[in-house]
Amino acid sequence: MIGRAFYFVAGALVGGYAVYRATRAARAWSPGGIADRVEKRVSSYREALRELNEDVAAAVRAHEEELLRRYAADPYPELPRR
Question: What's the pLDDT score for residue 2?
Fold first, then answer.
């Protein structure tokens, strides 16, 4: 009797878990689920591109400041005087 009850409960748990997983899979492969996954990927790529753009802009500003310091401080260095 206890053996049958155990198998009944175990079967119910396995069946419930299988339904849960099947429902999740169906929701993941529905058009809405696919759109959600694509939206998450696009937003992560957008954030990565924004960070790259900020890094490149900072590097360009630093290089521009270095060039201005080097060449704009004295446009005519060491001209001979007569």
Answer: 83
